[in-house]
Amino acid sequence: MSDTSIKHHSELTSGDFTAAENPFGLFAEWLAEASGSEPNDPNAMALATVDPDGLPDVRMVLMKGYDDDGFVFYSHIASQKGRELAANPKAALLFHWKSLRRQVRIRGTVAPVTEAEADAYFATRPKQAQIGAWASKQSQPLESRFAFEQAIAKVAARHLVGEVPRPPGWSGWRITPSRIEFWHDRPFRLHDRIEFSRDTPAHPWTKTRLYP
Q1: Which of 23, 7, 32, 12 is nearest to 195 (CA)?
Q2: Is 108 within 8 Å of 177 (Cβ atoms)?
Q3: Binding positions for substrate
Q4: What is its EC number (predicted)?
Q5: Of 102, 179, 189, 209, which one is the catalytic site residue?
Q6: Residue 9, Cα to own-chain centre: how many angstroms?
Q7: pTM (two decimals)
Q8: Strands 65-67 and 56-62, sheet pairing
Q9: Is 158 marked active-site?
Q10: Cα–Cα distance measured from residue 144 to residue 166, given in angstroms and rounded to the nearest whole number
Q11: DSSP letters for 83-132
């Protein structure tokens, strides 16, 4: 008979994560484990914004970097998410790693990355992805897949040789967290949850253990 007591650590749990004092350090540990266990995109995260009427919007994006200043992703400025973030620069993120039975929830303020950061990341993308960024009018109506393929072909023809510059309407955002919650599955829904919070980035983190 398996041990399903609350005190039992499953094979997916290495130590007591609720003892951690730095959320970014704990996030780095969990992301590293997810990178070895998730079949696809361990850096995938749900991004939640709100429209002008206050109706929530959510979609999956890829985190392309993080540090003590926040979590970074890239997209088109004129996309739906870009317009919503421009009007209300606040967002929530969710990482869900099913293979580890873990979640990380993040809430905070949003600001554009610098031009230099956007240029540097765009230069690392595969050329076909760079061409696609020029050809796509993200979130706008598209009459057919063929029309999109034609647009891609036209952009590709202009950039047969040499580097593809970053489109002026393509950039990134950094979510600076005020809340980071770590959640780990336990038997009988008796989960472990801890939340790190701070009033501003200049303030120290406060840690609170939460009921599941």
Answers
A1: 23
A2: yes
A3: 64, 121, 125, 189-191
A4: 1.4.3.5
A5: 189
A6: 28
A7: 0.88
A8: unpaired
A9: no
A10: 25
A11: HHHHHS-EEEEEEEETTTTEEEEEEEEEEEPPHHHHHHHHHHS-HHHHHH
